Amino acid sequence: MKMCLFIVFVFCFVAVCPVVSAAGRAFEDVFSQLNILYMFEEFLGKPCIVRCDRTGVFYGSVIAVSTDGKIAKIVNARRMWFWSGAASLSQVANEGVKKPNECKFPDAVKTVIVTDAIEYLLLTEQALESLEKVPVWRI
């Protein structure tokens, strides 16, 4: 009798554990995605710089972000092809550019969706004013 109960217990444990384990992983995945979205909440609707892995650097207002943070929808986006008067994007985000006439930023586009975002930086008011002074670069 004890052996029968033990076999039934082992069978139930082996049959149910993968389901419970999968549900636990699914819960962890959902929680992780919500946590990522919460981290991006302060960026939504505000002017920021988005650095991408292959598509370059943009500044504009981020209005949507995927649950993994890699896909972003940016409105009034301007590609920052070349900047002058700042050592890094961190400095650009904090202070702007010191030489706006030497920067190369093409026209703004109404909306762009990037699929390779790797860094988001909020712009200060000072930085935004500086970036808005950069003339449109055309060939």
Describe the structure.
- With 139 residues, this protein is an alpha+beta fold.
- The chain has 2 domains: 1-41; 42-132, SH3 type barrels (Roll).
- 39% of the residues lie in helices and 25% in strands.
- It has helices spanning 2-40, 89-95, 125-132, and strands at residues 47-52, 57-65, 72-79, 109-114, 117-122.
- A 5-stranded antiparallel β-sheet has the order 4-3-2-1-5, with helices on one face.
- A hairpin with a 4-residue loop joins strand 1 (47-52) and strand 2.
- Helix 2 packs across helix 3.
- Residues 1-14 have low confidence and may be disordered.
How would you classify the helix and strand content by structural class?
alpha+beta
Overall shape: it is elongated
Number of domains: 2
DSSP helical segment count: 3
CATH class of the largest domain: Mainly Beta
Q: What value does the Rg take, in angstroms?
A: 24 Å
Cα separation of the termini: 87 Å
Which regions have little confidence, pLDDT < 50, spanning 5+ residues?
1-14
* Percent of residues in helices: 25-40%
At CATH level 3, the topology of the largest domain is SH3 type barrels
- Give the spatial strand order of the biggest sheet: 4-3-2-1-5
Could you describe the largest sheet, including whether it forms a barrel? 5 strands, antiparallel
How many E strands?
A: 5
